Amino acid sequence: MTETSETKSIDPVAAKETGRLEAFSDGVFGIALTLLVLELKVPHPDAAAGARTSGALWNSLGQEWPSYFAYATSFISILIMWMHHHTVFKLVQKTDSLLLFANGFLLLVVTVVPFPTAVLADYLMTSAAPAACMFYAGTFVIISSAYCLLVIAAFRPKMLAPNASAAKVTQLRKSYWLGPPLYLTALIVAAFNVWICIGICTCLWIFWAITIMDSCEN
Predict the structure, then answer these.
(1) 3-state secondary structure the chain
(2) What's the Rg (C-alpha) of the chain?
(3) Distance between CA atoms of 90 and 83, rounded to whole angstroms?
(4) Chain segment 96-136, per-residue pLDDT in tens
(5) Percent of the chain with pLDDT over 90
(6) pTM for this one?
(7) Which class for 72: exposed (0-12), middle (13-18), buried (19 or more C-beta within 10 A)?
């Protein structure tokens, strides 16, 4: 029995060359998510003052809420970034050095997220909160810029899979270009109001969560 041209066109070995890159990237995203939890610290009420009681422990746990908030928001943001990365590479057939470097730069900045997360958690309720939020938002300015570079490298015609949806490519490319200016706005606003900065970042994550759900359904 002879192999038809249609069978050849859907041969996963022939049509897809990004397997190793995707597996490596998934591992890096997984490590970045895991590192976030290391910033959750066990509280230690003052034993010398007789504060080692259930009430003191619950109070100390409650005082750690900035750490929980930073952990949750950063976990969700990295999860959404991974989902977008997965969707981008569903549309890509080939790899080359430009795409590998662009993907490597994205992974570099993604692995940095636990650090500004820790800074935000430590300083959110202090007078240094504006600087912490500016640092946090600035990290996402760089990450969103890295996504723009990734799609420039990934969505070149010669890199796309034969069945890649032109509408989906256009939708994703347009949505990523919104990131750098809006995160930059959040960075600037943080100097005046940290909660508006955090609100802008949260709205962007909701927007990209909706974007990726729409992309998966289409």
Answers:
(1) CCCCHHHHHCCHHHHCCCHHHHHHHHHHHHHHHHHHHCCCCCCCCCCCCCCCCHHHHHHHHHHCHHHHHHHHHHHHHHHHHHHHHHHHHHCECCCCHHHHHHHHHHHHHHCCCHHHHHHHHHHCCCCCHHHHHHHHHHHHHHHHHHHHHHHHHHCCCCCECCCCCHHHHHHHHHHHHCHHHHHHHHHHHHCCCHHHHHHHHHHHHHHHHHHHHHHHHC
(2) 21
(3) 11
(4) 889 999 999 999 999 888 888 888 888 888 899 999 999 99
(5) 28
(6) 0.79
(7) exposed
| Cα-Cα-Cα-Cα dihedral sign, residues 80, 81, 82, 83 | positive
Using an 8 Å Cβ cutoff, are 156 and 94 in contact? no
93 neighbors 12 (Cβ within 8 angstroms): no
Closest C-alpha among 63, 59, 85 to residue 150: 85
Give the count of beta carbons closer than 10 Å to the beta carbon of residue 128: 13
pLDDT, one tens digit per residue, over 65-86 is 877 887 888 888 888 889 889 8
User: What size, in residues, is the chain?
Assistant: 218
Query: CA 175 from chain center: how many Å?
Result: 14
d(CA 63, CA 159): 50
